[in-house]
Structure of N2227-domain-containing protein:
Amino acid sequence: MDSPWLFSPDLIVLGLFLIFSIAFLAHSGAFSNIARALIHGNLALQDGPFSLRKAASSYENYRKLSTNESSRMRVASSSILRSQRRLVHQLGYSQKLDALDASIHANAALTEKIARLAHHDYPASFPITSSFPQKSNALSGDVGRVREALKHFVRDWSQEGSQEREKMFSHILEVLERVPGDERKEQRVLVPGAGLGRLAWEILQLGYDTTANELSYYMILAFRFLLSPTATNRVNQHTIQPYSHWFSHQKSNNALFRSIAFPDALPRLSPAFHLLEEDFLLLQPPSPTSPSPHAFYSSEEITSLDAGYDYIVTLFFIDTSLNVISTIQHIHALLRPGGT
């Protein structure tokens, strides 16, 4: 008997998912960029939320945006009743804001170096006549992504983050360690949503040909800062105060404003370690021949129809997808037959 459904239930569910997703994005005011990305599978829009210019501008303006924020906090504290101001003074709030300002300037020394590296590495993306620093139209919300990147430095590339990495990475690495060591160099691993690249780098240490893939230039620029021998040439070269903007959930001011050194290791690109700066949904399977070492690639440069990855590692990735179905389908398309 013919089915009473004009369309299959699977197609109906997928259609409803897309309709509700687009409706939500339109209601939130993000339709023009993000909804278009949902439909076409491309979040790497030139002026999108994760774009190069937006990220570089945000790193460049971290000092200004954060200082403006602390100034508003001072104004707010001075507007309370005189009797309350006395109590606030006794509690040391003014000194706390002084410490916040000092941490902002310490962190800005790093974020401005990252912005300079962006101008150096991507000269075609910035006006030839522009100087650094330059005036920018970065929104105040952008500074939140920069602050998250600072915390990623700690989690991924400091000794302080080692226990958290152990809990996150151990099960993945244990699976990859089951492959005999002499077979690993011929097997390719893709890590989409690689962030600052520590998991990809750990997989490289096991002997695999490893590709880190990242869409957000907030993450890419921070990772490039570590990969650059000019910007980072020794262990624990850099120091930041990454928690100073989060006054809650800290035991003390010492914990809030503590300095953390990084990196605890020096990552470098190599013939077996690659970085793809692109939307995962636009990636193509890699060719059997490894790309040239010490370079960054678009997927078009390493494309082949008869190849793929042996493993795709999706830590902190699938759950961030705007279209989970497309993501899972593309994982299947990128894997070699029998891949995991």
